[in-house]
Amino acid sequence: MNRDEMFSQVKDRERIWDVIVVGGGATGLGVAVEAASRGFSTLILEQADFSQGTSSRSTKLIHGGVRYLQQGNISLVLEALHERGLLFHNAPHLVHHQSFIVPNYSWWEGPFYGIGMKFYDMLAGKLGIKPSKHLSREETLERIPTLEPDELKGGVIYYDGQFDDARLALTLALTAADHGGCLINGMGVTGLLKSRGLVTGVQAMDRESGEGYEIKGRCVINATGIFVDDICQMDDATHAPLIVPSQGVHIVLDASFLPGESAVMVPQTDDGRVLFAVPWHGRVIVGTTDTPLERPIMEPVPQEAEIAFLLTHAARYLTKNPQRKDVLSIFAGVRPLIGTTGAKKTAALSRDHHLEVSASGLITIAGGKWTTYRKMGQDVVDQALRVAGLPHRPSRTEYLNLHGWSADDAGNAPYALYGSDARLMKRMEKERPDLVQPIHERLPYRRCEVVWATRHEMARTVEDLLARRTRALILDARAAVEASPSVAALMAEELGKDVAWAEAQVRAFADLARGYILEG
To answer: Among 8, 154, 250, 358, which is most exposed with the fewest C-beta within 10 angstroms?
Structure first.
C-alpha cells in the first residue's frame, strides 16, 4: 500500500468511481472492504490518518456489550456477538479470546451477574467462546492476586474478545487494497460536487501538497464518525445534528497492577458506565469515563475529574493503588453517539448505527461500534446499490479472511500482529540486521517495523508510526518521545526527506505527546 501509487489513480480527473467513501476510521474502512470485495471501484479519503480519531482510542475490546444487555438492547447484543464470532475466524492474528472477571462484594452480586452472563452465553450461540461460571473467593484471587480482598465473596468469569484497534484498521485498509480499493490518507474533503441537486462527487485537498481535486463518483458515503455532521452540512446547511459527542478516557499502567491473563469488569460505576481493567500488550488499560462534549475534536484532552475518577475506581478494586506517577500514558477518544431527544446522560445514548440518505443522494452512516463495523459496511453498500443504481452483487465479507490471515502466533513472533506479513518482515531483517534493534528499551517494537510501515502501510509522519502503526504512544508516552529522533531518521531515509523534516517531526510529536503524559 503505497500512497504515491494510490494517488496516481486520483489524478485521472475523468475517472468516475463507483463508490467514494469519506472517512478512514472503522466505519469507512469497513465500507471500503465491503465495496471493493464486491468488485466496485472504491476510493476512500481520510483527512488525517487511518483510525486517527475515535477508532484508535477504544478500550480494545471486541464484545457483545454487557452494558447493552443491562439496558435491554438485545438486538444490538445479538448482532455484536455474531460479529464477534466472525472476527475470531476472519482475523485470528488480531482478535483473541479474553477472560473477564466480575468481582462480587455483596451476597446478591454472584447470582445476579451469574444469571446475566449465562444469558450472554446463550445469546452467543454456536459463535460463543467458553461458558461463564462462578468462582470462589480463592479462585478469584488466584486469577487476580491484586484484586481487593476485603469483603470479596467471589466472582463470575466470562469471555469476550480483545484486539488492537489501530492494527485492525490498517488491516482493513490493506484488505481493501488487496481487492483493488484506492485509499489515501491526508486527503480532506472540502466540499461536494452536485449536478441538478444530486451529489456527483467530492472536492478534496491533499494535505501534503495543498493541491485541490475534483473527484467524480456514482455514490458518496459519509462515514466520518464524530465529524459526520460536518459533511451533512456541506450537503444541506439546515441539516440537524446527528451526533452527541461523549469523551472516554483511559489510563495505562504497568502490568504489575494486574498480573495474569484475566481482565476485571465492574458493571456499574459512579457515572453509570462499565469499568474495565484489561491486560494489553504487556500493560494494563483502565477505562473508561463518559463525559459529554460540546463538539467533537480530533485530540480531546482528559479532564482532571476524569483522571481522578479512573484513579479512584482503580484503587477501589486493586490492592496496588495507582498514583499519577504510575500512569505510563493517558488517552482520550470521542464517541459518535446518536442523539436521542430527552436523554440526560450520554451513557444512555444509542450505540446502534444510523443510516440515512439525503435528498441529494448522500449516504450517511453514523454511530455504531468497532465490533459491528462489518455489518455496518454491508448495510451501507446494500443501500448504495439502490441509490447509485450499481449492479447487484452479494456481500462477501461474512467469511472473508482479512489481510495477513494467520493463526500461527508463535511462528510469526515477534510480528504476530502482522499475520502472514511476518515472514516478509523477517526476510527484511536478514537483509538488514540493524533493523532487529528495538526502537527503545521500554517498548516492544523493532526498527524493522518503522521501515515496514513507511514502505507498505502508508505511514507519513512520526505520529502515524508511534501512535498507530505501533502503539508506542499509548504503551509509554515518555519512551515514545525518547524514541522519536531515531524513528524520524529512519522514516526520512525511506521517504527521501531531509534533516529539517526529521527535526520538525520530532518537535511535532513531542507537542502531541504532552497530552498523553500525566504530570505528577
So the answer is: 8
pLDDT tier at 109, thresholds 50, 70, 90: confident
Burial of 12 (0-12, 13-18, 19+ CB in 10 A): exposed
Q: Which is nearest to 454 in space by CA: 405, 425, 489, 495?
A: 495
Q: Give residue 413's Cα distance to chain centre.
A: 23
pLDDT digits (tens, 9 = 90+) for 121-139: 888 888 888 899 999 999 9
Q: Determine phi and psi for 226, rounding to 5 degrees.
A: -70, -10
From the candidate CATH numbers 3.30.9.10, 3.90.226.10, 3.30.300.30, 3.90.1300.10, the one assigned to the domain spanning 97-160+244-340: 3.30.9.10
* Residue where the block lists cell 446475566: 116
pTM over 0.90: yes
Which region holds residue 327: left if phi is over 0, alpha if psi is between -120 and 50, else beta?
A: beta
- What is the DSSP code (8-state) at residue 480? H
- Burial zone of 420 (CB within 10 Å; 0-12 exposed, 13-18 middle, 19+ buried): middle
* Domain range list for the chain: 3-54+167-242+349-388, 97-160+244-340, 409-516
CB 37 within 8 A of CB 179: yes
What are the contacts of 211-217 at 24+ separation with CB within 8 A? 213/10, 213/11, 213/13, 214/13, 215/10, 215/17, 215/20, 215/43, 215/45, 216/14, 216/15, 216/16, 216/17, 217/16, 217/17, 217/18, 217/19, 217/20, 217/43
Instruction: Indicate if 409-516 has the same CATH topology as 3-54+167-242+349-388.
Output: no
Q: What is the distance between the terminal CA atoms of the chain, rounded to a whole angstrom? A: 42
* CA–CA separation, 347 and 519 (whole Å): 29
- For the structural domain made of 409-516, what CATH number should be given? 1.10.8.870
Phi and psi at 61, nearest 5°, equal -120, 135
* Reported CATH class of domain 3-54+167-242+349-388: alpha beta
pLDDT the model gives residue 349: 43
Phi-psi group of 458: left, alpha or beta (phi > 0 → left; psi -120 to 50 → alpha; rest → beta): left
Closest CA to 269 of 332, 316, 324: 316
Q: Is the peptide bond before 414 cis (omega within 30 degrees of 0)?
A: yes
